[in-house]
Amino acid sequence: MEIRTFAPHFMKVGILTAAVQELTPRDVRDGDPDRAIEDWITFARELGADEIQLSAALHPSDADVPPEAMLDPVANTLDLRKPFDHARARRVQAALAANKLGISDLGYFDNMLHHERAIREKKLVFMRRVFDAAALLGVKAVCGFVGRNQQRSMDQNLIDFEEVFVPLLREAKARGLTYRVEQCPMPGWTTGDNFHNNIAYTPGTWIALHRICEKHGVGDQFRIHYDPSHAILMGQDTRSIFQYLKDAGYNFLVGGFHVKGQVIDAKGVAAWGYGGQTVERGDWSGGQPSARPADQLNAWKKQTVLCEHELPGTARHDPLAYLQNRTVDWFDHQLAARELLALDVANTPLVVEHEFPKARVQDRARLKPILEGSIAFVRNIDRAAACMFALQHEVLAAQGISAQGAGRQAYRS
Question: CA triplet 221, 236, 271: central angle to 5 degrees?
Answer without folding.
Answer: 130
